[in-house]
Amino acid sequence: MTSFADITPTLERLAIEVPSWAYGNSGTRFKVFGTPGTPRTVEEKIADAATVHRFTGLAPAVALHIPWDLVDDWAALRRYAEDLGIALGTINSNTFQDDDYKLGALTHTDPKIRQKAVDHHFECIDVMDATGSRDLKIWLAEGSNYPGQADMRGRQDRLAESLQKIYDRIGDEQRLVLEYKFFEPAFYHTDVPDWGTSYVQVAALGERAMVCLDTGHHAPGTNIEFIVAQLLRLGKLGSFDFNSRFYADDDLIVGSADPFQLFRILVEVIRGGGLDADSDVALMLDQCHNIEKKIPGQIRSVLNVQEMTARALLLDREALTAAQESGDVLEAHEIFMDAFSTDVRGDLAAWRESRGLPAHPMKAFAASGYQDGIEAARVGGTQAGWS
Amino acid sequence: MTSFADITPTLERLAIEVPSWAYGNSGTRFKVFGTPGTPRTVEEKIADAATVHRFTGLAPAVALHIPWDLVDDWAALRRYAEDLGIALGTINSNTFQDDDYKLGALTHTDPKIRQKAVDHHFECIDVMDATGSRDLKIWLAEGSNYPGQADMRGRQDRLAESLQKIYDRIGDEQRLVLEYKFFEPAFYHTDVPDWGTSYVQVAALGERAMVCLDTGHHAPGTNIEFIVAQLLRLGKLGSFDFNSRFYADDDLIVGSADPFQLFRILVEVIRGGGLDADSDVALMLDQCHNIEKKIPGQIRSVLNVQEMTARALLLDREALTAAQESGDVLEAHEIFMDAFSTDVRGDLAAWRESRGLPAHPMKAFAASGYQDGIEAARVGGTQAGWS
Amino acid sequence: MTSFADITPTLERLAIEVPSWAYGNSGTRFKVFGTPGTPRTVEEKIADAATVHRFTGLAPAVALHIPWDLVDDWAALRRYAEDLGIALGTINSNTFQDDDYKLGALTHTDPKIRQKAVDHHFECIDVMDATGSRDLKIWLAEGSNYPGQADMRGRQDRLAESLQKIYDRIGDEQRLVLEYKFFEPAFYHTDVPDWGTSYVQVAALGERAMVCLDTGHHAPGTNIEFIVAQLLRLGKLGSFDFNSRFYADDDLIVGSADPFQLFRILVEVIRGGGLDADSDVALMLDQCHNIEKKIPGQIRSVLNVQEMTARALLLDREALTAAQESGDVLEAHEIFMDAFSTDVRGDLAAWRESRGLPAHPMKAFAASGYQDGIEAARVGGTQAGWS
Amino acid sequence: MTSFADITPTLERLAIEVPSWAYGNSGTRFKVFGTPGTPRTVEEKIADAATVHRFTGLAPAVALHIPWDLVDDWAALRRYAEDLGIALGTINSNTFQDDDYKLGALTHTDPKIRQKAVDHHFECIDVMDATGSRDLKIWLAEGSNYPGQADMRGRQDRLAESLQKIYDRIGDEQRLVLEYKFFEPAFYHTDVPDWGTSYVQVAALGERAMVCLDTGHHAPGTNIEFIVAQLLRLGKLGSFDFNSRFYADDDLIVGSADPFQLFRILVEVIRGGGLDADSDVALMLDQCHNIEKKIPGQIRSVLNVQEMTARALLLDREALTAAQESGDVLEAHEIFMDAFSTDVRGDLAAWRESRGLPAHPMKAFAASGYQDGIEAARVGGTQAGWS
């Protein structure tokens, strides 16, 4: 049997990047509600992200989105973040909000628009050089709404060509990470709808091109942990975008909709070496706090990942393997469920305290006055959002 | 065998209400693209709707959305519409964009917010009195995002209470129509998620309360035509919101994603008397033209409904019944498919011409110069959208 | 805060009926695997069911399926069961295996076949009179595979007529419980596909007609706990068929696929009075043990229900209501998740021992030698299955 | 504009393999209904398949399933088939009905069981050598029902190893075709659940290993034509298993559930060269005629494929490309729908007659007396089914 003490070395390595845009306003196509204290600047977003890290010890880096987070002086921003104890992380490109991209960007039939989209990624790589970021994450919001509207096959070829240009530009220590998504904002076809497509596209590029798995981007019923296992087996799992969903890409707090699924995913991450000391798998949140407060929403999220990681690490793999190999279906399942059924909240609280962190980050944050402070201070200006 | 001539009396009755908001801009949570010629005022929306009717003879009424379409002088607006050959139709309420409604409106725990939402519906009924509209359509965007966030059962009771207040206010010739939706904007629970819930709520109100079936508001795989048949059987199918979908509530052009499904739905509408001369079932579009031009998008939509209605009317019901009763599965299916496989485009074009309408409404609109006219004229101002 | 001691009075009332057919062989359309020790007779099935109860204290009744479990002497069977400490429970009818029912039974176009199906239910009611069973459960395996094959509307009317005949025959202390199912064995339409249809059919019959909710019979993504809340609100939730699913009607061990969903369902059961002392809601398993051993599969299942019931009972409803009414989304969700995160296994084990039950029923059963005994004894004959 | 005459050269090449098991009984886990005239032997199955070809000219080969169709004298069977005007086609292996395979076959933890499953495929290759079949089709019914039951990652590695052994044995003119399936008969994980997994497994084997796409084996909402386009782009689309579905793997008549989807699939097949003279893509049916007559069920199926192929060939690709490149969403969609809306039944009937085939194969078969003949002749013996 594995004890909590056995697993703390791995838990210590657990790091979950938080996205700058989680601190701005988000919503649905029907309404984006504003909230007091919402950041107006990238610096305020970074301050909030650093706060999440300060209370949890789990979020040492913040991902940026270009152009939403564009600044003139990257060196200054980097120092600003480092002074707050947080690093600048993954750079996310955006080819879905410019009018030119209405019908496609990297896949567009017009070579000038494709080049514009490629150039945008070159700009992102320049930012990476300045911030020291490793990963360029590409979420391709491209596709079509009506059968016949687009030539899916030709778009796939043009995508390969555009990605090659971008890949050729990234540095030796940098990676291109390609996200896939089942649907939305396109409603008939998506150019990278599944892990298979992302895999064949990045496999054609080279070793530093990887797949990004967003937990909310699958068809109903998809066994996500199988994909995790497969991509780790193929050496192509670059990163996770964590969130949870009941229906579509709901972007809810990770672990809130199906905690057992999150557990199963983390079991496969661990099984495939994704939490090993030398692992390159990046864990990141990508969520929307449409109705709940954003900073505690993020705190809760990284805690959920930590809690399920702890349960997954407690899995008695030796006993499990023995039961699996003996063909004892119920015994193997029970060993698996025993790990999931373990309440690790107490052990985690004690361990946090031993590391100088608050035992109960949610309560500590609520008591800290930080939220009141930003609500009082951040008056006027334009609240950050998805633009 | 039924001939095309046999079905034209029913086709003549076919009327599909168009929504004012289809002419404004819409999009996804990621981006709303603007387009040249988009209306800035409710009058311009009505002018566009009337254009759809002029080219098709199919859209004699336009639905309004309150507060998006609020005006001071309803009598003037009514005359304006009538002069353009179109009537003001269904009034749609809105309880999803006011900050007070973030966590609920008709279901909110706070009685003051519930009353505010009820009052909004009273205001809508006042509008109906002024416009002569028959139907008050309520789409309830309420629900919750996280398990535990809300007491689903208590909300159901409060909903019943709020609806009763609204129902008590509508006139003897007016109807309350309650729409259901599987999910979105709420991502864990929706207060009226399915036809069953809408049915039990309106059944508790009385005879003039009916269910609205939006074709995009169901779980994957749902047999929608079964629901149509059941609601007609129960005398509770008030109206349709037509659109089509591949994944979620995609709000694509009706008939573009699964024309056979639209055919099957119309077969049940006809089977249940929904196109009879004395039918009260209202047909309406509710769509988003995110990337395509809006007026031709609407023209195409009403033509799709007309085309599938014609095919459905051509179904040889006598032969079908005989095959069904003899248990000949393949014969019954073939008779059904024969109607669906019939190309009615030529007959419809000829019939349109015989009624003084353009044979090819899409081409006629394109050739008419209307689009160029509005693009040139509608410069400046704020383009209409969902706010 | 609720303590474990607070909830034991309710836990003591928890009773889950087990189905006789769970002890026979089951499988998929591809293969039914046999297993040593499988019962050959209804008596052997009852002996196995009684064993589940003996090790858990949770399964005091066994449901029967007619004609699979038909015997000549019901009084003797009843005594046999009672001697083993178990009661005969719900009677399940079968209108899906006779050749006459290939295209329908209670809904068939041929009145002779409908009457035959009605007569079968009369026979089931006779059995109920002999066994003392309260509930007649009707799962309607009827529907069609091809559009056009059947007149869905006419079938609905015939169903109402057939059900009325059956309902008129049940005794004053008996109930008719109508199950709904999304699909399978019919693949285009099912005559009772959703709770709404079951509800309108039983509401038309009278007070002793109720809805049966099988947790595996919904469209992907359906919020089942909402339906639980709604049916309890309407006073029409007759019984549960518990099992779990990832994809279709997988009929896996309840709680094995999504334990959090089972928790949420039980929270609504409790919220709606379904575990109150005077509750009429019947809890039952309906599962297939295709590859795992059947008796421990059943033990595991009732334990899963018990475990999630305990967690659900531990929910701090006072605090939850306060958080819900204050609109604190994250606090309400956290209170909810705190109950779910509680590891009740230790408390349950101790409590079981205090009641003279084995602390660990799975281990106690494995150590008991019962499985070896039946494997040695049940040689020859025909293993029970779905026929 | 393309005329019907333009497309007949391609239509002439259209060939759809039919499965021997479609003529035997099939059903659901609840019931397999028998039907008069069902074959008792492989010869009778082949006679029925040849009948489908005789009436349609579309089904020149019949696929066999081992061991269901095992015979002693393959040369004799081959001659028997050829005399009836039909070839023996794809050989399908079976690793899902032997008790040893309950928990896996090619992926089993026990090397002896894996070797047994590999040996079965060697036997299938021997059959192929005797029948002259090109394709060995592997549908992997393996997976697990419960989380923890199996090590998904290890199974993937063992699968690769087993497939390599099989691939090494096939001849230079033979191919290994690997089918994927979302779920069933396993209900938690499937070892080859999606095209990505099939692709990475066959890509690791070599050029003569290909993917088989069964149209019913996807998650709800999956854009299948996208996968068709992608696999053709990658040169890895080996074959189709055609059927249709509303919910799960319903195995209904191809084109009966969503004819527009079948049209879209065939558009991509044509776009990717899948109907070119030198194409290696094999088209095959894989269906169940649970309630309808089997031979006309198959006739209807190949006619549906032919009809949708004709519509797809009529697509005005030049105009479509122009509309796509000009970004005219509605025009491109309309050109696409115009092809789909074309009623080709008359042209096909005339063309059939010109080739010496019945204009209306369904009617001609019904009038032929073949069904009466087999119902009279095939009395006694054991009707063929899935065992």
Task: Provide a brief overview of the structure.
The structure is a homotetramer. The first copy, chain A, has about 375 residues and is of the alpha/beta class. Chain A has 14 helices and ten strands.
As an assembly, this protein is homotetramer
Q: What is the class of chain A in the CATH system?
A: Alpha Beta
Q: What's the helical proportion of residues of chain A?
A: 40-55%
CATH architectural label of chain A: Alpha-Beta Barrel
Task: Explain what the structure shows.
- The structure is a homotetramer of 387-residue chains.
- Chain A is of the alpha/beta class.
- The first copy, chain A, has a single domain (15-296), classed as TIM Barrel.
- Helices cover 45% and strands 12% of the residues of chain A.
- Chain A is built from 14 helices and 10 strands.
- Chain A has helices at residues 4-13, 42-56, 74-83, 111-131, 152-169, 195-205, 224-233, 259-271, 294-313, 317-325, 329-341, 345-354, 361-368, 370-377; strands spanning 16-19, 61-65, 87-92, 135-139, 143-144, 175-179, 189-190, 209-214, 237-242, 282-285.
- Chain A has an 8-stranded parallel barrel, surrounded by 6 helices. Chain A has a two-stranded antiparallel sheet with strand order 5-7.
- In chain A, α5 (152-169) packs across α6, α9 runs antiparallel to α13 (361-368) and α10 packs antiparallel against α11.
- Chain A is globular.
- Chains A, B, C, D: It comes from Nocardioides imazamoxiresistens.
- Chains A, B, C, D: Pfam families: RhaA.
- Chains A, B, C, D: Its EC number is 5.3.1.14.
- Chains A, B, C, D: Keywords: Cytoplasm, Isomerase, Manganese, Metal-binding, Rhamnose metabolism.
- Chains A, B, C, D: GO terms for molecular function: L-rhamnose isomerase activity.
